[in-house]
Amino acid sequence: xxxxxxxxxxxxxxxxxxxxxxxxxxxxxxxxxxxxxxxxxxxxxxxxxxxxxxxxxxxxxxxxxxxxxxxxxxxxxxxxxxxxxxxxxxxxxxxxxxxxxxxxxxxxxxxxxxxxxxxxxxxxxxxxxxxxxxxxxxxxxxxxxxxxxxxxxxxxxxxxxxxxxxxxxxxxxxxxxxxxxxxxxxxxxxxxxxxxxxxxxxxxxxxxxxxxxxxxxxxxxxxxxxxxxxxxxxxxxxxxxxxxxxxxxxxxxxxxxxxxxxxxxxxxxxxxxxxxxxxxxxxxxxxxxxxxxxxxxxxxxxxxxxxxxxxxxxxxxxxxxxxxxxxxxxxxxxxxxxxxxxxxxxxxxxxxxxxxxxxxxxxxxxxxxxxxxxxxxx
Length: 378
Fold this sequence. Notes:
disordered C terminus; two-stranded antiparallel ribbon; single chain; Leucine Aminopeptidase, subunit E, domain 1; nine-stranded mixed beta sheet
């Protein structure tokens, strides 16, 4: 078994691994719906859409070993019971070696790069979500909401505050880099007719505020105006959260307690002056999945930590002007991670006050088209 030499090769091996699992499932005659309903130890905590993504290989990393082990066990049992021949091995040690091969490479690659894998690398690959949808869940007996908005951040309107994932030096990314920090810097700048930056408004204000305080503490936040984003996207303020830290020659790494960025940012929002903001019944705050780009943070665990931190804040606040906290999902794997995190909360109420026309459903690994169960688009 050859080791991956690049992100692309790694992505191909992950896809092959997942599709071999799906081949085993189909040969054993195990349906996805039936599989998800079987009591297993440990239980499979995936929605059907997420499980289909795994079986298609449309995931950034191989599925957890617990999931692989359960799937192998169920397939072997069903194939034996129904006397079905299998061309794919059900030997647990064989699958364990393949799984270790991929996860070991991931850890080694991140150590070598200081977790500085670019956001376009195959390790974070997924399908870009081009249609904007807003999926909201409301806290019981409350107007406070947590949700997910899909598509490019440049298309998002109506959020009063954007949170910018920044490093502990509070140095914004260069405008040509593929990051949220770069987008916020460029879109917030004043530009000439040719698109050239003539006034670097947000970065200059952040520089003046941080000055000689560098490096700042992990999770600390600084507030600036939104520059030209106030005209283009209706943003009133940008909160810069220290979500990653770096080393010379080693790149950036997500901070350990990434949830602090959420609680600190929301506390900072409470202190802002929104006088003159028309038609706002409550404040809306937008978070990207902090530290999962150049910081190399795991999408699933990051989404869980950030969303649960937001829910905990809204639940514990006796009074708050914040009505809605949104998390940005640019890729389908990010959307799946956010929906799974919302589902884990348990008692949130789905909000169905806005819908978009039905979209074409993705093709399942079985070749048919299945109804989405992700939540109400809006």
